[in-house]
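pinning this so it doesn't scroll away 📌
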Amino acid sequence: MMLNDPSLKYRPFPQVDLPNRQWPSNVITAPPRWLSTDMRDGNQSLIDPMNAEKKRRFFDLLVKVGVKEIEVGFPSAGATEFDFISGLVREGAIPDDVFPQVLTQAREDLIATTFESLRGAKKAIVHVYNAVSPAWRNIVFQMDRPQIKEIAINAAKLLRDNAAKQPDTDWHFEYSPETFSTAELDFSLECCEAVMDILRPTPDRPLILNLPATVEAATPNIYADQIEWICRNISRRDSVVISLHTHNDRGTGVAAAELGMMAGADRVEGCLFGNGERTGNCDLVTVALNMYTQGINPGLDFSDIDEVIQTVEYCNQLPVHPRHPYAGELVFTAFSGSHQDAIKKGFASQEARNDQIWDVPYLPIDPKDLGRDYEAVIRVNSQSGKGGVAWVLQQDKGLKLPKRMQADFSKVVQALADQSSRELNAADIWGAFETHYRLAGEQPYSLIDYHESGAAGDRIFTGKIAHKGGERSISGRGNGLISSVLAALRDELGVDLEVADYSEHAIGAGTDVAAAAYVECRTPDGRTIFGIGTDTDIATASVQAVLSAANSVAAERG
């Protein structure tokens, strides 16, 4: 059980002594180099690791998205890994602009096997690591600092010597002082400098120094301080690429990576949708799309986010959470009435403006940029308001209900949602709309045909109405079509209505479009009745709208 005084068991993470830190004032203005470790860190965290077919599918997806550095595996782990990696090389599956990267522990036999898996590759990155923090030194390895540093030095020599045996490959190297974020900064720096002394990087051929938050143990600002400290104190900053590898143990892996970039890092390692050991690695999708929403092209293409999700879910056999940033099926969806109203108004404002700047409440990114449509942006349940209901009808049927009619119909939908205790889909809403406004089912008054005549200001409506199983001819006189229809209904059928408001609009665009007409009517006893009509002819639509209201009156009479 949890302790009343957790300080008896846990110690706060120490601050970094970094006077005049600069990163809080910095701004991300360009994307980093991206490294996907889905096929390594991601794969090792799966209940059922990917087979060769799934790994190849994942590799092809990463290439399609635009990832240029892909950690394809740990070739010394076994025949499955080795054969897959060597097969990529043999089959010429690696594009010329993509660096395959492989991971190895700092052991002579494992490093030799690693290089052998890449024999014949045009270029490659070999990534070696050894843990350097006190917990690993004292508990896991029972070694002191000099012994740990010697492991790093020997590994660097093995990288250099094995690369020399395959001169036709353009070799690049990466070194990770594993568990960097929980190690002493001066010792991490000491190990990095020792590796640099062996591999002798230059600005033209830099060494990748990967500084992992192997276990996230502090707030993201601490990690940013650590990165800036290394960037300040490394001896040949222009000859190294500072790489970040964050984990999500405290839920801030993305934030740590972003602050690490502000602190001077050049490269980000992670997985699509944050897969990885324990709580996962840094989510490359979120980091990239966070940049995108700030006007920065991340260099990764998620224009079809659903295809990416489908492939990742198939390969990992893990679902992407419905609330996952940018990708989840519910992240662009509003159920709350006030949210729906703001979004609806935002889209209307967006359509009316003449610029491309995206500015819609509650939507930090245009869903269409990711291949999503607007149909699921607003969904209706018992928490929804009139704006959400109106949005669904507009998207599904092209109807733009007047505001008072929105309020009228939202009560119907609210009652239906409360009764059903579930989300209402577009079909549910349309069915309720047809029933409430008498567009379907039994209709006491149904238009068969009509004719309008007379001079301006003195119009005569002559119509044929289906009524009580037969046909009835009715006529009325008024100053316009609608008033003459109302006169006919009053004088011939005893339905007394006055029009308080009328509106109309086209449904769709172009030359071959339909029209919608809406009437707000008053009864002699002061009640409000709404009607709607649609037709390819706007005049006919207006007659249908009046009959819709008349049918509601008739239904109330029973």
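📌 and the second one:
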Amino acid sequence: MATYGTILIPVPLEQAAPVLREVCAAGYATPAGPGFCLVHPDRFLDENDVFALAGPISAAVGAPVLAAFQYDGDRLELEVWRDGVRAHRYDSWPGRDDEDANDTPVGADPAAFLAFAAGPVDGHRMASALADTPIDMADMDVDGEPGYVWAQALHRDVLRALGHPDRVIHRARWDYCHMCRAPQMVANALDRTELIVLGAAEHPF
């Protein structure tokens, strides 16, 4: 499954745009419902991945940001940054790259993510998702292994528990590379005026 990295900011796009233009070397920014926006940086540039940008963005916009990186369908990493400092880190599979690490998710604290709620919070779904315990049968491993089959479904449930609508959840799982390679998908989902091109990125449509 495709890898992606995005940053969710609880600030309207028009308010965040000057900061994003300043700190992001290349990428796109999109609206994410009332009072929120998303950044889709080109993660292949030095110091331009979601975790490198989260600190400077949080300091400059004066609001917490949620950086998400989903790797190959296997692992979801989330970091909350406030005032330029990492305040919380979640890792759904810390043992993926470290045989000595425990496979139990770390940082599974629902309270750490409440600043990113867009509506009523589903506490049960949130706690279950962070614990890598899917509520819906369709997200469970058919071979009986515990946890989500795909990490992007875990990410979906975190955002759904925070009250974000499906169109925003879908957009939050767009990677810069996907947007470059599938301009028609972007054009179908966004009005031209909703997409902000950052730095050296080219307009996808």
